[in-house]
Amino acid sequence: MDTRSKILTLPQAMAITARPVAIVSGTFDVLRAEHAHELQKVHERAENAVVLVVVLPRERELLTQHARAELVAALRSVDFVVVATPAELQTLAEALRPECVADLRDLDEQLSLDLRRRVRGTRD
Predict the structure, then answer these.
(1) How far apart are CA 57 and CA 18, in angstroms?
(2) Does pLDDT of 118 surpass 70?
């Protein structure tokens, strides 16, 4: 299966009719094992829910939003992925009225800081 078929446009994502829906947002730059674990937890907690991941923009990103969306789409626990802005995320949440909402941006920031510390540590 080409997992890129899980990547939806914003109008396609807003037209999801399956219920319940769980929305998980984050930047996923760089996608790490911790992201996969958190997405699996959401998948398990929201039984029978469609898991929609919203990949948000990031300043000084390592990978483009679309490249990050492709990586997230490859995860088994993810049903659909959409690239969006924070305002579009809000609109999407209002339209879909998800059963579960998870924001991984704090995790993204912590993982990014840890990665920077490790890289700097190896150079010293």
Answers:
(1) 26
(2) no
